[in-house]
Amino acid sequence: MISQIGLIIAKEWKLEWRNRSAIAGLMVYILSGLYISYLSFKKIADPATWNALFWILILFMAVNALAKSFMTESRGLQLFYYTFLNPQVVIIGKILYNGILLFLLGLITFLFYAVLLGNPVQGVEMFLLAIFTGCFGISSVLTMISAIASRAGHQSSMMAILGFPVLLPLLIIIIHLSKNAIDGIEFSVNIKYLTLLLSLNLIVPALAFILFPYLWRE
Amino acid sequence: MHSVWKIVCVLLLFYTVIAGFLLPVPALPILNETIRNLYFHVTMWFAMIIHMAISIIYSIKYLSGSQLRNDLKAEQYAITGMMFGVAGLITGMIWAKFTWGAFWVNDVKLNGVAAAMLMYAAYFILRNSADDDTKRARLSAVYLVFAFPLMMAFIYILPRMTDSLHPGNGGNPAFGKYDLDNHMRMVFYPAIIAWTLLGLWITSIRIRIKNLWNETNL
Fold first, then answer.
1. B138 with A176: Cβ contact below 8 A
2. CB nearest to B122's CB, from A162, A169, A200
3. What is the SS3 assignment for chain A?
4. What share of residues in chain B are helix, strand, coil (percent, to 5)?
C-alpha cells in the first residue's frame, strides 16, 4: 500500500512536470497577488495584519492549486484507478502530494512576502512549522472537497462554497499558531495549538480515507 | 395513542413560556432578568444539536445502505436543525445586545456558529447543484460527515482553549455552574424536551409531505 501511495505521488509529480503551465500559472498567481499586496500596503507594521494577509494569500493559492486535483482526471484514468488501486490509496496519495506542493509554494510565498512586505517573524522555526502543518491540513481538507466538487459539477465556484466553511476552524487555529510564532512566544505556550492542529491533520485524512470510497463508485 | 407525545410537546411549550417568564430567577449582576434567555437560547441550541446529530446519523445510514429515504430524512432533520440554529442565533443576539452591548462581537463561540451556518448553507447548495437523486444523496452525505467533526472541533474544542465572552468558556462559568438553581432546572430541562419534540414533530410532517410529493410526481 505504501509503495502504491508512492506511485500515485510520483505520477502526480510527473504529470505536473510534463505540463508545467499549471505550476507556472500558480507561481504567477502568487507573485501577482504578492505584488498587489505590496503596492497596496507598501510595508505592514502590524504583525496581526501581516499574518492575516499571508494566510489569505495562501488560502486563495490553495483553492486554486487544488481545484484541479480531480478535475483533470479523465474518465479513462478514473476507470484505470478503479480497476487497479484502492480508493484509499488514491486519496492518501493525493493528499500527500498536494500537501508537499502546498508546503513548497507556501515557502516560496513566505520568501517573497518577507522580502517585499518586511519580515516581523521572530520565531522562524515555529512559523515554518505552522506553514508545514497548516499546508498539510489545508491540503487534506481541500483535496477531499475537490473530490466532492468534481462530482458535483460547477467546479471552481463549488470549491470555494464548500471549502471555506470547512477551512475556517482550521485557519483560525493556524492563524493563532503563526501569530504566536511571529511574536516569538515560547514553544510551551504554543503546544496546545500545535497538538490541536496535528490531531486535525490526522482526523481529516482519516475521514477522507473512510469517506472517499463512497464518492468513488459511480 | 401515538399522538400523546404531541400533546406533551404542546403542554411543555406552554409551560416553558409561562413558567420561563413568571417563575423566580436568581438576581445576578449584569445578567439580571436576561438570564431567562437560558430557557430559549440554550435550549434551542440543544434542540439544534440533537437534530443535526440525527441528520448525521441518517447520512451515515444512507452511505451504508444507499436507501433514498434515509437521505430524505437527513435533509429534513438538517433543515429543522438549521431553523433552530437561526432561532437560537436571534435569541442569542438579542441577549448579547442587552448583556454585552452589541448584537455581534468577535468571539470564538460566535465565529464557530457562523461557520457552522455557512457549512449548512453550503450543504444545501451542494444538494441543489447535483442533478440526479442518488448522486445528490451520496455527495451531500459525504460532505456532511466530512465537515461535521471539523465543526465540532470549532464549536466545542476551540472556545475552551481561548478566551471567550460567552458563558461556559474562557474562564467564564457556564450558566449551570453558578446560577442554575432548582427553580431554573424545573424549567430548563422541560424546555429542552419541549423544543426537541416540536422539532421532531415539524420534521415528521415535512418528511410526510415530501414522501407524498414524491409519490404523486412519480
1. no
2. A162
3. CHHHHHHHHHHHHHHHHHCCHHHHHHHHHHHHHHHHHHHHHCCCCCHHHHHHHHHHHHHHHHHHHHHHHHHCCCHHHHHHHHHHCCHHHHHHHHHHHHHHHHHHHHHHHHHHHHHHHCCCCCCHHHHHHHHHHHHHHHHHHHHHHHHHHHHHCCHHHHHHHHHHHHHHHHHHHHHHHHHHHHCCCCHHHHHHHHHHHHHHHHHHHHHHHHHHHHHHCC
4. 80, 0, 20
Question: What tens-digit pLDDT sequence spans chain B (218 residues)?
Answer: 678 888 999 999 999 888 888 887 777 767 777 778 888 888 898 899 999 999 999 999 999 988 888 999 999 999 999 999 999 989 988 888 888 888 888 777 788 888 888 999 999 999 988 878 888 899 999 999 999 888 887 777 777 776 666 766 544 555 555 456 677 778 888 888 999 999 999 999 999 999 999 888 86
Chain B hits for A170, Cβ within 8 Å: 150
Q: How far is CA A61 from CA A30, A90, A135, in A?
A: 7, 23, 11
Please report whether residue B163 resides in a domain.
yes
Angle at which helix A87-117 crosses helix A187-216, to 10 degrees, equals 140
Indicate the residue of B63, B122, B153 with minimum beta-carbon distance to A169. Answer: B153
Provide the grid cell at B215. Answer: 409519490
Do residues B52 and B77 make contact, with C-beta atoms less than 8 angstroms apart? yes
* CB pair distance less than 8 Å for B111 and A172: yes
Q: Number of folded domains in chain B?
A: 1
Tell me if A162 and B111 make a contact (CB, 8 A cut-off): no
Residue B125: its chain A contacts at CB < 8 A?
A: 161
Residues of B in contact with A176 (CB under 8 A): 162
CA dist., res. B74 & res. B54, Å (int) = 7
On whether residue B36 sits in a domain, the answer given is no
- Asked, for residue B38, whether it belongs to a domain, the answer is no
Considering the domain boundaries, does residue B28 fall inside one? no
Residue B122's domain spans which residues? 50-181+198-216
State whether ipTM is beyond 0.85: yes
Q: Note the pLDDT tens digit of each residue in A78-132.
A: 777 777 888 888 889 999 999 999 999 999 999 999 998 888 888 888 899 999 9
Q: Which residue carries 487534506 as its cell?
A: A140
